[in-house]
Backbone:
């Protein structure tokens, strides 16, 4: 804690969404996860974080969600240390889509309205349409009143992700945190979820833990993490030209290198996850 009273966020005023990490270290107990991270993400940018499992990419996103505070250093949004902001109000400005979308038992409508239970049917449908989920929902028995089994077991992984994206859209967040999880989807579902994700990102500041490098290639900026540090930072094109770690990951992703070079979760999704419900 900074020792200061929590600062309320102005009602009706949006966050611009500029996020800075200033000399950030973080450790899970004795295990260092981040070391001396110094990054500024411009408002409205979509930034993909890539690297091997355990490199620290999901930890960075968790710090922005304020699931944890840095061991040392500061994480700021629009110049304000996150520890100074009212946590509940700040969380309401976030959209979080985890790798495995958790859906409670209830209707599709309930699942989408989870972060805004007072939303009208029209608002719920508008959110679904905004991310391209409406046609999928309309095809289900009962449409928005289709009953969802606990954890969404009676829906496909792609359907669960579309509902999670609609849920985040309804909250209308200023900052979007995505643990991209298309690696386990078939190609048709992957294309649909990818398109929905891009619609949701819009002009919001978006942080993506990118398991598939096709996601990184579409981002405005790619940050390569390695053993808790920022190893490379730039556009997809810039990093390919650099011919360093990202270029090697990309060649591995395309199947152009030998298997022993492929110590990455770029293709298989990896076990890291944001592990949060959408708020």
Residues:
């Amino acid at each position: 804690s900074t020792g200061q009273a929590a600062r309320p966020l102005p009602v009706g005023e949006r966050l611009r969404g500029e996020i800075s990490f200033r000399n950030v270290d973080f450790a899970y107990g004795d295990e260092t996860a981040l070391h001396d991270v110094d990054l500024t993400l411009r408002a409205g940018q979509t930034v993909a974080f890539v690297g091997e499992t355990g490199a620290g990419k999901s930890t960075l996103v968790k710090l922005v969600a304020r699931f944890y505070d840095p061991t040392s250093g500061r994480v700021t949004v629009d110049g304000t240390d996150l520890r100074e902001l009212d946590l509940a109000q700040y969380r309401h400005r976030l959209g979080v889509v985890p790798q495995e979308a958790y859906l409670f038992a209830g209707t599709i409508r309930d699942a989408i309205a989870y972060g805004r239970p007072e939303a009208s049917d029209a608002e719920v449908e508008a959110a679904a349409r905004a991310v391209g989920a409406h046609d999928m929902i309309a095809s289900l028995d009962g449409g928005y009143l289709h009953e969802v089994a606990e954890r969404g077991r009676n829906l496909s992984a792609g359907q669960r992700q579309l509902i999670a994206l609609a849920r985040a859209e309804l909250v209308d967040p200023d900052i979007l945190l995505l643990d991209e999880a298309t690696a386990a989807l078939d190609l048709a579902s992957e294309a649909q979820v990818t398109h929905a994700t891009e619609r949701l990102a819009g002009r919001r500041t978006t942080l993506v833990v990118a398991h598939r490098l096709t996601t990184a290639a579409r981002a405005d900026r790619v940050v390569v993490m390695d053993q808790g540090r920022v190893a490379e930072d730039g556009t997809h094109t810039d990093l390919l030209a650099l011919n360093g770690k990202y270029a090697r990951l990309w060649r591995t992703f395309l199947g152009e290198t030998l298997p022993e070079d492929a110590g990455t979760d770029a293709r298989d999704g990896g076990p890291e996850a944001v592990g949060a419900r959408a708020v």
